[in-house]
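[job 4471] stage=fold_predict status=RUNNING
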Amino acid sequence: MSSHYFSNTLVINLQPNNTAQQIMLMEASNIDISSLAIEKLLSEFELCVLEQRKVPAAKQEYLATRLTLKYLYKHTYPHDDLALNEISSQFDDKDSKLKLHTPVRESVWACLSHSNGLIGAALNPAQQLLGFDIEQSNKPRPFIKLAKHFYHQDEVDLISSFDAPDEQAQCFFRIWTLKEALAKASAQPIAKLLAPNVFEEIRKHNFCARSNCIEGFDISVVAQKSTDWQCSFISFSDLRRDLAF
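[job 4471] inference complete, writing structure tokens
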């Protein structure tokens, strides 16, 4: 297995960056949904989905991901004169892609991930094969036991080569985020990619991969054409100020 999958090469900026291939990260757990005029922020379809979320944290993450996508849309297409609720996100089961729909242009591909309050959102106007995943990586787990049940034997051996529990956790979750990102990039169910060796699968599909970890989370990006994707953090207050709501 190539060690470069464990070298932290994914750039994570602590402030918003203007690069085109941008994954925006946000802490969603501090959003007070009750203080917002939700009907002005979400489309009718999104409002229905939000209503179906019963757990408060799930509502926060859903709202945060959709508003972050709309933030990215507004910066990608600054001349589209659209209200936020005219931009609607919906998963297309036919090609297994999340898409943003508006009255003024063809649907725009997008990608999302979230874990324990941290959300990530990216637009993919070029429609390249892309996936990314975020996982909280500091929760205690029987990592070797789990790996033996789900992972390829080579991956189990790699995790088992570490003695320290935190190193086993980092290895386990790096493999997991790569598998999840690959599943999204290749439009395959994650269940189909648990058993195969993820490093061989990435090479087989001629994908590029970059990963990093920050503040107890592991993040991996898998893309067909480019490894130029970067992550940037934005606060909800800054996003709210930018979108003027």
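[job 4471] summary: The longest strand covers residues 108-115.
[job 4471] exit 0
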